[in-house]
Amino acid sequence: MTFELFIFYLLAAIASISGVMMITIKDPVKAALWLVLAFIATAGVWITAQAEFLGLVLILVYVGAVMVLFLFVVMMLDINLAILKEGFTQYLPIGTMVVLAISAMMYLVLGPERFGLEATGAPVVHSADYSNTKAIGIQLYTFHVYAFILAAVLLLIGIVAAIALTLRRRPTTEVRYQNIDKQVKTQASERLKMIKMTPVIEEPIKPKEEEEK
Amino acid sequence: MFDALQAFLSTFLFDWLAILITLILQTVAVVLPIMLVVAWLTYAERKVIGFMQVRMGPNRVGPLGLLQPIADALKLMTKEVIFPDQSNKYLFIIAPILALAPAVAAWAVIPFADGMVVADINAGLLYVLAVTSIIVYGTIVAGWASNSKYAFLGALRGSAQKISYEIAMGFALVTVLMIAGSMNLTDIVNAQQGGMLNWYLLPLLPMFFVYFVSGLAETNRTPFDVIEGEAEIVAGFHVDYSGMTFGVFMLAEYAMMILISFMTAIMFLGGWLSPFEGIPLLESMFAWVPQLGWLAFKVSLLLFVFLWLRATFPRYRYDQLMRLGWKVLIPLTILWVFVVGAMKYFSFGPWFN
Question: Do B323 and A36 lie within an 8 Å CB cutoff?
Fold first, then answer.
């Protein structure tokens, strides 16, 4: 067994186990963390398949940003697991049927006869200085540039829509907004006023009445 | 590193065993010095801040207090690790590991001198960005597993801050790779050869500041340490941690500080290159300094800035911190991507040839 093969089986085992754990575990936060582990292991498998750009971007985008936001939501939910598990036996037959149907369809499309070496041919082995990032960049920015820009515009519209839906400017009678420019440009003369006052000298405290007695 | 050793081992061992042994040795050779630097960085921090505040700093353990970090480490290791009653035990233990592991793993691609690097991979810059983005899980899991409101608030603040500043950081790295034409860290340094003017500090001056400020925010250092915010949320995400579990969080924070300093030195300050390259007299005078020496010097300067800022600045208010990240740093980086594009188009200066 070569070292690469050992690494591949290790990562593949971690990915499969964490995938199963993610589905079966009860606690949603732990499930999300198992999903993170599955992502990382999958990224490792991609990197061993010489797709280092995709692997690293998977970690950067999905693990580093998307799953964090996902965890935010899951952590703040107060889920009652008992209610969530209700009606398990009731839906079991239909659930089993759906799973069987999906598995059968996946087997038809992704079965071993379509992914053996005789179907795809041996993968091209690139030298160490081959840059997968550059190869993807050239494809994206030349042959698929319109699709790429369209996807970017679509995401931008998504951002604008999300902000437009949630943005609410309340009137200044309710909340006070900061004007940062005004704050930065402020001068000492606007904030500090020197006032001349005549000093008030307190009279010394009189000796107590005890002495008079 | 250690190619000869691997070749020697594979003459009488299994191939995979030889690779495994070499990998472990490489890891130890990189991680051990970093941990030692972390230890004495805490000492330096207390000394520097002490002097800035006209105090002595630690001076009881060993000469000049130099053995203080060892005493601290022993104290942390012998203290009891307390588990809060309602905490989630597994995640409570895993959280410090999640914080430390990426902070250590990122060192795999950092070159210490020409050719002195564990993994000289093409996508080095992307690797560092990807691996350091996992650190946020340490914070968020710690905050949730503690089952305390203070910890959870700290975790929410901290992780939102980290993923916001990561964007600015990523764009700053984009300008570096635009100008260097490579994501390999060794290539980035070698592209800056030929004296101080050829460093990327000048064409990317705003990006240098953006990167360093984002680095401060990523490592939760003052003025961005709202994650701890002892005045409001006691100590934030690690309020329930004690003993070595707390120590591991500290290790991760300081290891990240050193990593950010290394990255800044490599990308903007010419890495291991001498600042006197091309200057007749000074170049030969300083020819004896090893490459690692120059890199260590630059990193020390940057680390000093980390400590200096901590002694100088008050903490940002949370909304102002988010405003700085989203409305100042990110637009600036996007603008600078176009500026660098224009510079490249017009072959401006000694940086594009």
Answer: no
- Convert the pLDDT of each residue in A94-134 to its tens digit: 989 999 999 999 888 887 777 777 777 777 777 767 777 78
CA dihedral A80, A85, A91, A93 (to 10 degrees): 160
Query: Which residues of chain A does B126 touch, with a Cβ-Cβ cutoff of 8 Å?
Result: 52-53, 56-57, 60, 133
N-to-C CA span, chain B = 31
Q: Is the pLDDT of residue A213 over 60?
A: no
Q: Which one-letter DSSP state was computed for residue B19?
A: H
Which residue among B121, B130, B319 places its CB closest to the CB of A60? B130
Q: Where are the domains of chain B?
A: 79-351
**Is CATH 1.20.120.1200 the classification given to domain A1-79?**
yes
The mean pLDDT of A22-47, rounded to a whole number, is 88
Q: Domain limits of chain A? A: 1-79
CB < 8 Å to A68, chain B = 136-137, 140, 159, 163
pLDDT score recorded for residue B16: 73
Q: List CB contacts (< 8 A) between A21 and chain B.
A: none
Residue B29: pLDDT over 60: yes
Q: In terms of DSSP H, where are the helices of chain A?
A: 3-24, 28-48, 52-57, 67-76, 81-84, 88-110, 112-115, 117-120, 132-138, 145-166, 180-185, 188-191
- Residues A44-70: what's their mean pLDDT? 86
Q: Measured between CA atoms, how close is A131 to chain B, in angstroms?
A: 7
Nearest CA in chain A to B149: A76
Residues composing chain A: 213
- The tokens for A159 are 């951002």
Burial status of residue A135 (CB atoms within 10 A of its CB: 0-12, 13-18, 19 or more): middle
- pLDDT (mean) for B201-219: 88
Q: Residue B61 has what DSSP assignment?
A: S
For residue B236 the two structure tokens come to: 């934030």
Over residues A149-167, the pLDDT tens digits come to: 999 999 999 999 998 998 8
